[in-house]
Specification:
- The structure is a single chain.
- By secondary structure, the chain is of the alpha/beta class.
- Helices cover 44% and strands 13% of the residues.
- It is globular, with a radius of gyration of 22 Å.
Length: 508
């Protein structure tokens, strides 16, 4: 176990004029001036960077107070409306799309906060169909995609590399969308049976699942190359639904605003002075932490704590500026955050370097070529002042799950336990201070960890049904050219799609 606490630095608020047009640029400086639709239908930027808003809207205390009584769905609408201009998606249409997306969750407001003993507050984000927080953003983004595809009479091919939960969520969200094919690659043997079956039991013609003999970081390498091939991207309508896609990050901003509005004493404080709260986040690809940083820079005083498992690159970079991969990805009880390349940290570094695309480009290219990087001292100081971090072992995950059950009869998933460990070891909160722990997945998806903790659970009938269903997937063997295999399938998807369109035209 390693932990460090830091001081929070107040965020500045930048409020654009009403005439300002929301545009997006790459974190590496080579692309700018894109609109939301262009960014939605992309993966990495053409220069290899990640898309971000060129400027962030500010949120005043008055605005936050006016949002305090909103449901989660209504809050997602307000957040998205800040970044999606009305001329691209009229507000009424946007409201309908988001309402439909968030209507299929198992709790009334899509998310739920649970108050446990001694101030342990858990924000449950896992009440979607695949029982992971990815469902919240994925269902919304899928509806946004479908909106444009239907309007433009075109199709897209979604390519997703997953460390466990993203793939199943992407497949589930894309079901029933006529204009979408989904190609998912997962690390064989490195995720739970439930996570795997959420993907491999999908037999629809527009779903293509590959099991790779390697880690999720290994999978990211050929996917980056695919998206760097702009001819392939343009000719085949290639796009990403990983948190590489800005739209995923956009929806995740609402998690942090919801936590703040429901847990802070905002209504008791007058004027523009805002009370801070601490949000503790289990961290892998760093998409949620990036979203939290953005919300902070929009004027919401969040103290962010990034908690990781034994794959501790985020912890090391916060502590010492050491942004270097370990020799291999360690397999832990929290597999969805078994990541050594937390790609969304690029967004965080861009924000904290005052949007210095040239610096970020140099840093990220060095990291990608050597897998080793020491942050410049000035940038590291900003990062360590902005985020706290901690690292948790498998033994500590088990201890946290057991203790939470003993004290509350509340079962944590191992990823949520990575966050909740902080509750039992962090300094006590002062009077009037609040802290929230993000619960990213249902414990029902991680039976091995539950059993190792000596605990039991009754599997939901939806998960029991997965065990009896047929499966379909293809293997990507170690030593073969994964990029070539995936490119062949993408090209085959286009051929099948064109034949289908010709057949449909002939019938008409």
């Amino acid at each position: 176990m390693v932990i460090d606490a830091c001081c929070w630095v107040p965020a500045s608020i930048r409020t654009p004029s009403k005439e300002a047009i929301m545009r997006y640029c790459s974190t590496r400086g080579g692309t700018c001036g894109w609109d939301f639709r262009q960014v939605l239908f992309s993966g990495y930027a053409p220069d290899g960077g990640m898309f971000m808003p060129e400027s962030l809207p500010g949120l005043s205390a008055d605005t936050l107070r006016s949002w305090a009584s909103l449901s989660y769905s209504e809050l997602v609408l307000e957040v998205c409306a800040l970044f999606i201009p009305d001329d691209l998606i009229p507000r009424r249409d946007l409201a309908d799309l988001l309402s439909q997306a968030l209507s299929q969750f198992s709790v009334p407001d899509a998310v739920r906060s649970v108050q446990l003993r001694d101030g342990l507050c858990v924000l449950e984000l896992f009440h979607g169909q695949t029982m992971a927080f990815k469902d919240l953003a994925m269902t919304c983004v899928a509806r946004l995609l479908d909106y444009f595809l239907r309007r433009e009479h075109r199709r897209a091919t979604i390519v997703v590399g997953t460390s466990g939960d993203t793939g199943g969520s992407a497949i589930c969200s894309a079901r029933g969308l006529d204009g979408v094919d989904v190609l998912v690659v997962f690390p064989l043997g490195r995720i739970t049976t439930v996570q795997e079956r959420h993907m491999t039991t999908s037999l629809e013609d527009n779903v293509h699942v590959f099991a790779a003999d390697g880690s999720s970081d290994d999978i990211d390498v050929p996917l980056r190359r695919l998206f760097a091939d702009q001819d392939l991207v343009q000719n085949h309508g290639l796009m990403s639904l990983n948190s590489v896609n800005w739209a995923r990050i956009l929806v995740q901003l609402a998690h942090f605003l919801y936590a703040y509005l429901h847990l802070s004493d905002l209504q008791k404080v007058k004027g523009q002075e805002l009370p801070p709260i601490e949000v503790v986040v289990p961290t892998g690809g760093a998409g949620n932490i990036a979203a939290g940083c953005i919300v902070n820079l929009m004027g919401v005083p969040l103290r962010l704590v990034a908690m990781v498992n034994d794959n501790d690159i985020v912890h090391r970079v916060v502590q010492s500026g050491d942004y270097s991969m370990a020799s291999s990805v360690k397999r832990t009880l929290a597999p969805a955050i078994d990541i050594q390349d937390p790609y969304n940290m690029e967004r965080v570094l861009w924000l904290l370097s005052d949007k210095n695309g040239a610096l970020v480009k140099d840093l990220m290219e060095e990291f990608q070529s050597s897998h080793r990087l020491q942050l410049p001292e000035k940038l590291h100081k900003k990062l360590s002042a902005f985020i706290s971090s901690g690292s948790v072992t498998d033994e500590e995950i088990i201890d946290t799950m057991q203790r939470c059950w003993q004290e509350n009869h509340y079962l944590l998933c191992p990823h949520s336990a990575v966050a909740a460990w902080y509750h039992y070891h962090a300094p006590a909160l002062g009077p009037g201070e609040s802290r929230c722990y993000i619960a990213t997945a249902s414990p029902a998806k991680f039976q091995e960890a539950v059993q190792k903790a000596g605990l039991t659970l009754d599997l939901p009938k939806e998960l029991r049904a997965l065990e009896e269903m047929k499966t379909r997937y293809e293997k990507l063997e170690k030593g073969t050219d994964w990029e070539a295999r995936l490119k062949e399938r993408i090209q085959a998807i286009r051929c099948v799609r064109q034949k289908g369109e010709l057949f449909y035209s002939a019938k008409k």
